[in-house]
Design goal:
Blueprint: H1 2-17, E1 25-26, E2 35-37, E3 42-47, E4 53-58, E5 61-66, E6 72-77, E7 83-92, E8 99-115, H2 117-120, H3 123-126, H4 129-133, E9 141-145, E10 148-151, H5 162-175, E11 179-185, H6 197-200, H7 204-212, H8 216-227, H9 249-255, E12 265-269, H10 278-299, E13 305-310, H11 324-338, E14 343-347, H12 362-376
Parallel strand pairs: 2-8, 8-11, 8-12, 9-11, 12-13, 13-14
Antiparallel strand pairs: 1-3, 3-6, 4-5, 4-7, 7-8, 9-10
Length: 380
């Protein structure tokens, strides 16, 4: 496990560590067409030469800091009102000819949409393209994925997460402001993959998986699975019930790079891969609060609202114990949310398909999540 995390960390930091004199770089979440969170301080960070003066300018604000001995720097812009006016975020070093510009930046609400395949499922694969595009497209909706932000046009809608798109569209129409969605989703992954090691080690189930992931044969299996996509039962990691990712690895890939980026809230749609055995489904009640707390701690937002999708109806005929673990997972989700402040559980039972773990009614679910957000987050 430690070897795997060291490897992932080195890969994540390699582009930054490889900076040569004269280079200036922003954190991975900053790119053209992005959305910054309104009404909250906005951290902006990156790397430069050690002890170099850095100036960040945006929307009439100008903040200056000094890079540390490791080259890292961070400033916080003051809270800003929502704005659909495209503006440029400018970062300059102590040398006037060295700068980085992020163009077409809006200010609105930013949500993180995370989970596994049902969160990742695109509008096109859900079969709801007609629903998603039948009304005029709200302006100012941007999605972040694969390391870049993009403006969502009619042609781009079918490629987006169906749940996240329906949610963003509803909120944008209701609030009349730009919407940014950061999609962090990978199919066939367990909750352990999305937790940092510090949170994993606080549960018996997490410690067990962390120890197992340090085995050389497990590390080799993960590497082999990464080279070619095959149905989950045919993966090498299937032998150890690991899902498609080792513990903590997706946290390192998707969550850690967000740093303390300001968000309005989180959508969490995951649990299917933890619902095949009773012991896993029961442990979820302890794991989910630890995941939420660890994310809030990293993001430095202790009251960040998290909306959890309670799994829809599914018979899972091939699972150990039949439907009992699935039912227990739903109960564990409910138990977890009861222990967490600023958290909402949205039941999707009636939107399920007894014979398909990937139900297609994603537009309805996204709308349901938006309704919950409008009630609990926008009108507290």
């Amino acid at each position: 496990m430690r070897h795997t995390l060291r490897l992932l960390t080195s890969l994540l930091l390699a582009p930054l560590a490889a900076l040569h004199a004269g280079e200036l770089r922003l954190g991975a979440v900053f790119s053209d067409h992005m959305v910054l969170q309104r009404d909250k301080p906005v951290p902006v960070w990156g790397l430069a030469d050690r002890s170099e003066q850095i100036t960040v300018e945006f929307a009439g604000q100008k903040k200056t800091t000094i890079a540390g001995v490791d080259g890292k720097w961070l400033v916080k812009l003051n809270p800003m009102a929502a704005s659909a006016e495209p503006r440029t975020l400018l970062v300059r070093s102590g040398q006037q000819d060295r700068k980085v510009q992020v163009a077409d930046v809006l200010v609105g609400d930013v949500w993180l949409a995370a989970g596994q395949s049902n969160m990742a499922m695109s509008v096109a694969k859900s079969g709801e393209s007609a629903i998603a595009t039948r009304e005029p497209l709200p302006s100012g909706i941007r999605f972040f994925g694969a390391g870049a932000w993009q403006r969502i046009t009619t042609a781009e809608v079918p490629k987006q997460s169906a749940v996240a798109w329906a949610f963003a569209r509803e909120i944008a129409q209701a609030q009349k402001m730009p919407m940014g969605i950061i999609v962090a989703a990978k199919g066939g992954t367990r909750i352990e993959a999305w937790m940092p090691r510090s949170a994993l080690m606080r549960t018996e189930a997490g410690r067990s998986f962390a120890a197992l992931a340090e085995q050389p044969e497990v590390i080799a299996a993960a590497a082999e699975d990464a080279r070619a996509f095959v149905p989950y039962p045919q993966t090498k990691l299937y032998t150890w019930r690991m899902g498609r990712a080792l513990p903590a690895t997706l946290h390192a890939e998707f969550i850690a790079p967000l740093g303390a980026f300001s968000l309005r809230g989180v959508l969490w749609y995951q649990g299917e891969s933890n619902a095949s055995r009773m012991e896993d489904a029961t442990a979820y009640a302890e794991q989910l609060p630890l995941l939420v707390q660890s994310w809030r701690d990293q993001l430095e937002q202790p009251t960040l609202h998290v909306i959890v999708v309670q799994l829809p109806h599914y018979e899972q005929p091939d699972a150990e114990g039949g439907t009992r673990p699935w039912i227990q997972l739903r109960e564990s989700q409910q138990q977890a949310v009861k222990t967490l402040a600023d958290t909402t559980l949205v039941d999707a039972y009636d939107l399920g398909d007894p014979s398909n773990v990937h139900p297609r009614r994603k537009a309805e679910l996204g709308q349901r999540l938006a309704t919950a957000a409008l009630r609990r987050v926008y009108q507290p």
